[in-house]
Amino acid sequence: MSDDASDTRQAPESKKQVNSFDVARRAGVSRSAVSRTFTDGASVSEETRKKVIKAARELGYRVNVLARSLHKQKSDLVGVVAADLDNPFRGEQIDLLSQGLLERGFRPILLRGDPSTDVGDLIGSLLQYSVAGVIVTSDTPPEEICMECLQNGVPLVVVNKRDPGAPVDRVLTDFDTGGRLAFEHLVACGCRNLAVVTPERSSYSVNGRALAFEQAANDGGVPVIRIAKGTQSYAGGLEASHVVNEYRNEIDGIFCSADYLALGVLDGLRHTFGIRVPEDLQVVGYDDIVQASWKSYDMTTLDQSRRDLCEVTLDLLMKRLENPDLPQQVQVCGVELVQRGTTIVKE
């Protein structure tokens, strides 16, 4: 007997996709009533709405958002381009942005922008979905794609990125003040020979923190060593701790330009080299990620509120959607020092 003859299995019968006409027939209403039921702000009686919702649930009907966007020319999708999703700061930031967009009636669509990825290409792919707007937290987008967004009426907000050369809205944290506060705190803790630990390849904001710290130290006449090693990650911090150890007899305080990096530095100093923090070396981080408050780290750091940062970002996006002709907006969010156990202020 041949294989064909012995195989009595049949492919499952494909299920017909339910559309708005099916829902209208089941509910005993017009198709336009179905459309109004699933359109925010449209007028429909409560009785009709209940009939339509009941029929839709029974049939398993789902609104085709992308098809609807073809008629409106814009969807309720907002693209979020992000990198370094393993970083606790970034993870919390994306979570807050997503929640905020949903609360405002939009649907977030996340694209991951790794270092090898062209952020311009990612934004270009989002424009194919008729997105209502784009938020970028990864690399600074090129001027050309920014202008394309503007020409297509798609608001673009960049977070903690340099000016891309196009009049897009930007949100920044005050890293100039953050770097200065880190310096002033270490000096208040009695430190007189400092180092700043930063990744070999820093983002715009992370490098800005390091530069602000160095400038404050220079203005104060305090020597500072720059240790640029590894990546902006826990593993990068472990790697950087080896260099810090080489200077252990020349420095008494260090500023790490990002908490995720600082966690690795702290573990390397304590567990690999037996350096006591804060007794032998005092440490300040930047970001105030949740891990910084864990008892095993208890790290002094600069807090840039993710919630404030996200609220300002979303407010800028909403204002731009309401009034596309507003002049370019640049908002700066403040920072504050959070003192914990990796520093000791001298009396």
Core attributes:
disordered N terminus, 12 strands, Rossmann fold, 347 residues, 13 helices
Task: Explain what the structure shows.
This protein has 347 residues and is of the alpha/beta class. It folds into three domains: 17-63, lambda repressor-like DNA-binding domains (434 Repressor (Amino-terminal Domain)); 72-173 and 306-333, Response regulator (Rossmann fold, 3-Layer(aba) Sandwich); 175-304, Response regulator (Rossmann fold). It is built from 13 helices and twelve strands. The chain has helices spanning 3-6, 20-27, 31-37, 46-59, 65-72, 88-103, 119-127, 143-151, 175-188, 204-219, 234-246, 259-272, 306-322, and strands at residues 77-82, 107-112, 133-136, 156-159, 169-173, 194-198, 224-228, 253-256, 282-287, 300-303, 330-333, 336-338. A six-stranded parallel β-sheet has the order 2-1-3-4-5-11, sandwiched between helices. Strands 7-6-8-9-10-12 form a six-stranded mixed β-sheet, sandwiched between helices. Helix 2 (20-27) packs across helix 3 (31-37), helix 6 packs parallel to helix 13 and helix 7 runs parallel beside helix 8. Mean pLDDT is 88; it is low at 1-14.
Strand content: 15-25%
Main beta sheet: 6 strands, parallel
Residues in helices, as a percent range: 40-55%
Rg over CA atoms: 27 Å
Structural class: alpha/beta
Euclidean distance between termini CA atoms: 94 Å
